[in-house]
Design goal:
The chain contains eleven helices and 27 strands. The protein folds into three domains: 265 residues, Thrombin, subunit H, CATH 2.40.10; 91 residues, Pdz3 Domain (Roll), CATH 2.30.42; 85 residues, Pdz3 Domain. The protein is globular and about 65 Å long. About 9% of the residues have low confidence. The chain starts with a strand and ends with a strand. A hairpin with a 7-residue loop joins strand 10 and strand 11. The chain is an alpha+beta fold and 495 residues long.
């Protein structure tokens, strides 16, 4: 049966749920009934009544008591109600015309704006009302309301989003709100107990438990060319509406944001996935401080060295063992090139962290900001070399970006590819990048740019290759180019 990846909560749904009960019979209960009862002493940390103050200490050999983590953490998990404005066609269906073969499709001209309700979950991370959630929960929202654990409804505003990680930050006005502290997703162990908290099927404050099944899953599920994925896999039950909710360890710390499920039916079938807190915390702090994510780039294209890689390329490249990532290309004017890293190098460690797969590489790099200095070790010609690297931003500069920065590739909303010499000759252009795909909500979609359009200039600056899009950091006011039929078009954008 084919399995599909489903984001765990965009559209609000309803469900009829049947209740049941079970009886647990302890093995050898009769034999032990005459013995003295076993006494288990629990040491409880005494503190304030705030979130995360009362938790049970236990030995690794004992089963964890999840009640303290659950009762505290649930207070900081909210339901997010989203209103989106969508275009809905008005022209009716005429069976008479359909019978005679007249098309009955709906044109954009006939569409009128309609409001659509959707929702998901979120986690309060500070007492003053900052809330993390998924980008897909709040994407294209015209209005948001947050329902707190105590039933209060508060209007929310969008602070910022990061489609590459599917993380968003929203804000409500409040004081002394219950909040969750960040825990370390790096320290999670396979088999460790975790709690998933959210609002599946609009059932607010639902808690499920499971274990960490796997780490560093790369599923290709985030619909973004520059996606960063390193999911925590659990068997805690997650369903539509859980998106943006908390994944909590037994100490009541936030270790992940529940994001999607793998299912053949649209509901939970044993697999759920969360964005690790190592990524969420960095993105949230950047959005709060700068209004955008300070993405640090090493400036290489690489491949994970797996058994499959060794089978296909091992002999050709002279690589005999797994581990690390193979540098396929060094980006011009990037951080790696400036440091002396070359094509064909095998990166083995980043700041002392050993690389064992591609996902680890992307997750590790997502923690840094431009101008951060890191140490990288590589294998080259059988020898280990060490490099000091100063990371750069997407524009190729070793500096932080300000709030006025525009991510051109993100703003345009699409996928792009460089054109070959044949296309250049046919269309009589010297350079350009082809629009391979147009995503809804971006500038291309709003300007009604069609797939196949070749962009030659943005803001009158030449676009010779895809990487040139990253060097456009100012507001996009014009797009020039040519369609495959030779028709030259200039789009002027008025805000």
């Amino acid at each position: 049966m084919k399995k599909v990846l489903i984001v765990a909560g965009i559209v609000v749904a309803s469900a009829v749920i049947g209740a049941g009960s079970a009886t647990i019979i302890t093995k050898n209960s009769r034999k032990n009934s005459q013995n003295e009862p076993k006494v288990i002493e629990r040491i409880v940390e005494v503190g304030s009544a705030g979130v995360g103050s009362h938790f049970t200490n236990y030995q690794s050999s004992e089963y964890p008591d999840l009640t303290y983590a659950a009762e505290n953490a649930v207070q900081a998990v909210v339901n997010i109600e989203v209103t989106q404005v969508v275009q809905q066609s008005q022209r009716g269906f005429d069976p008479f015309l359909e019978f005679f073969g007249f098309p009955q499709g709906y044109s954009q001209r006939d569409a009128v704006p309609r409001e659509r309700k959707s929702g998901g979950s979120g986690v309060i991370i500070s007492p003053d009302g900052y809330i993390v959630t998924n980008n897909h929960v709040v994407e294209n929202a015209s209005k948001m309301r947050v329902k707190l654990y105590d039933g209060r409804l508060l209007d929310a505003t969008l602070v910022g989003t990061d489609p590459t990680t599917d993380v968003a930050l929203v804000k409500v006005d409040g004081k002394n709100l219950p909040s969750l502290p960040f825990g370390s997703s790096d320290d999670l162990r396979l088999g460790e107990w975790v709690l998933a908290i959210g609002s599946p099927f609009d059932l607010q404050s639902t808690i499920t438990a499971g274990i960490v099944s796997a780490k560093a899953r790369n599923l290709g599920a985030i619909p973004n060319e520059y996606r960063i994925e390193s999911f925590i896999q659990t068997d805690a039950a997650v369903n539509p509406g859980n998106s943006g909710g908390a994944l909590v360890n037994t100490r009541g710390e936030l270790v992940g944001i529940n994001t999607l499920i793998k299912s053949a039916t649209g509901v939970y079938m044993g697999y759920s996935f969360a964005i690790p807190s190592s990524i969420v915390k960095k993105v949230a702090m950047d959005l709060k401080e700068f209004g955008l994510v300070q993405r640090a780039l090493l400036g290489v294209q690489y491949s994970e060295i797996t058994e499959e890689f060794l089978e296909n390329f091992g002999e050709e490249y002279g690589i005999k063992e797994k581990g690390g990532v193979y540098v396929r290309k060094v980006v011009e004017d990037g951080a790696a090139e400036a440091a002396g890293i070359k094509e064909g190098d095998i990166i083995t460690t980043v700041d002392g962290i050993t690389l064992d797969n591609r996902t680890n590489m992307s997750e590790i790099m997502s923690r840094y900001r431009p101008n951060d200095k890191i140490k990288i070790s590589v294998k080259r010609d059988g020898k280990v070399k060490h490099f000091d690297v100063t990371l750069r931003n997407k524009a190729g500069k070793a500096e932080l970006l300000d709030r006025g920065h525009v991510d051109a590739a993100e703003s345009l909303g699409g996928l792009f590819a460089e054109i070959n010499d044949k296309t250049k000759k046919e269309l009589k252009v010297d350079y350009g990048v082809r629009v391979v795909e147009v995503n809804s909500g971006g500038i291309l979609a709003k300007a009604r740019v069609k797939q196949g359009f070749i962009i030659t200039h943005i803001n009158e600056r030449p676009i010779r290759k895809v990487s040139d899009l990253n060097r456009i950091t100012s507001e996009i006011t014009s797009i020039d180019g040519v369609y495959p039929n030779g028709r030259a078009v200039s789009y002027s954008l008025v805000q």
